[in-house]
Amino acid sequence: MSPFRGVVATALLATLLLACSRDEERPTATPTPPPTATTDAAVAPTEISTPTTEVPKPTPVLENLTTADPTLTEGVLLIDATTGAVTHLYEGATWRSLPFWDETGTSVWLNLYRFDPDATIWQHFDLDGRIIEEQEGRPTLRPSLECADLPTRDEIELPPPAEQPQIWGVSPDCTTMLIEADLASPDAPGTPRGHWLFDVATGNLTLLTDQARTCGGCDGIFGAAWSPSGRYLLHAESYSAPDGGRVWLSDTTTGDTRLLTDTATAGSATNAAGNAPAWLPAETVDAVLYPAPATEGGSMIETLAANEVRRLPDLEWPAHFEASGRYVYAVSEDRTSTVIAEVDTGTTVAEWPGVPATRWWEGFGSEPETIIATPEGPAAILTPSDRDTVGLTIHHSPLPGGELTLPNAARGATWSPDGTRIALATRGDTSPEATWTIGLLDTTTGARTELVTLPLYQDFPPKLTWNEAGTHLLVLWPSPVGL
Of 459, 378, 401, 400, whose CA–CA distance to 425 is shortest? Predict the structure, then answer.
């Protein structure tokens, strides 16, 4: 089983848990019958051969939604990136839809009315936007990630004084689980906490550490991450005070555990999601990326089997692998540029102004790839470090001059799987009346094709997600932001 699936499963679980947490903060909406998907086959893509600041917008797709409608707050579109056909899977009031590609990227699951558990409906669409089926209750979105016959936390007995066991992760092969539990009462910041490895087949428990502490209830904490081989495990405490943030590395075969990093050593909260150590995305190598001591600066890559540690002095923490594992990147200390280095050599190969444009929907499903590996070398979608600034610069050597700046484009632009196109949202200005237009950009020529203007005035741009084949684009407008 691919090690990436464990990451996808964790992200999906986190998405659903965050959706549940939002239920408590929003009023319950009165359910309305799910709409029938409609396709705007007559929408003709607008080809823009020379990118300019002022881009003519196509006519909004739905004539009755050309002005802001206070009862219309969300929509889901399915776009055929080859033909430009746009299918409206859902439009309605209140944030209550949650779309997912299925595991193969050949169909879409859409969860409606998620703020009313008694009226939840899942609709299943094919790539033409036709409803395949409807069902109540959560479908199996990722069959290969489903683990059968796992025990519940109530079925796991921990030695005293452990209380209230919680399942914090399941290995990609479904054979082991990370169990955490308080070692004292009450559940308050700093309460001692234990981490155990649970063998699903035998029921055996192995104590990994009893030195963890709980934050007493918090969000955005790193969970558990198994290495590509499944042998090693990263796990963190949730306590985030200056003397907390500890992350451990355990050998699941021997139970040997060592402290990998903590906030005091790294100079930042290394147990926070997006700031924690990470595994190299390679199926045959167990290599972990983590912060160098703050006194030295930079980042470290440790290859466990070879017992090799290499320091990357140019990459301030947090650093990240791009999806292929060829490059590792980080934002500069002054947050004005992005530095990219080769994983194999540690050599810095690029430093471009701007920061990765990936923060609009952090924590909600898959984030767009903004740093990628191409046959020509690394490529990036970067934005000014000021989060309130709209605009993107694309760095890719085949482009004329090696880069292209789009002043009216939003964060969240997304490379296609093969790197030949970018899906992006643009608008003419930042006024409350400005709407978002979805388009595609050819990453070799810089030519743009505009596909559809969204019928909603909203500061937040839409969420754009490609299917695995890069033939279709799933659009959720506006993108979910915050809790």
Answer: 459
pLDDT for the residue 107: 95
Residue type, 240: S
- Residue appearing with tokens 């890069």: 470
Q: Round to whole Å and give the CA distance between 218 and 363.
A: 14
CA dist 336 and 352 (Å) reads 9
Cα–Cα dist 197/249, whole Å: 12
| Percentages (nearest 5) of helix, strand, coil residues in the chain | 10, 40, 55
Six token digits for residue 91? 């439009």
Distances (CA, A) of 466 to 80, 424, 440, 475: 10, 11, 12, 9
Highest mean pLDDT among 27-31, 219-223, 345-349: 345-349
CA distance 143 to 287: 28
Show contacts of 149-158: CB within 8 Å, 24+ apart.
150/174, 150/177, 150/200, 151/198, 151/200, 153/179, 156/198, 158/194, 158/196, 158/205
Strand bridging mode 299-303 / 414-415? unpaired
Considering just the CA atoms, what is the radius of gyration of the chain in Å? 23
Residue 239 to residue 212: CA distance in whole angstroms: 8
Residues 158, 164: Cα–Cα separation, whole Å: 9
Q: Which two tokens stand for residue 442?
A: 């050819």
In the block, which residue shows the tokens 């003519």?
Answer: 56
Beta bridge partners of 473: 79, 466
Counting beta carbons within 10 angstroms of the beta carbon of residue 246, is it exposed (0 to 12), middle (13 to 18) or buried (19 or more)?
Answer: buried
Q: Retrieve residue 406's tokens.
A: 């789009």
* Highest mean pLDDT: which range of 24-28, 41-45, 162-166, 389-393: 162-166
**Tokens (6 digits) for 65:** 């939604």
Instruction: Tell me which residue of 80, 131, 157, 109 sits closest to 12, measured CA to CA.
Output: 109
State the pLDDT at residue 36.
45
- The pTM is what? 0.80
Question: Mind listing the pLDDT tens digit for each residue in 287-330?
Answer: 999 999 988 999 999 999 999 999 999 999 999 999 999 999 99
pLDDT (0 to 100) of residue 337? 93
3-state SS class at 2: coil
Instruction: Spell out the long-range contacts of 164-169 with Cβ–Cβ below 8 A and sequence spacing 24 or more.
Output: 168/195, 168/223, 168/224, 168/235, 169/10, 169/223, 169/224, 169/225, 169/226, 169/233, 169/235
The CA-atom distances, in angstroms, between 272 and each of 14, 178, 239, 264 are 14, 18, 10, 14
Q: Is 29 left (phi over 0), alpha (psi -120 to 50) or beta?
A: beta
Q: Which of 176, 139, 346 is nearest to 252 (CA)?
A: 176
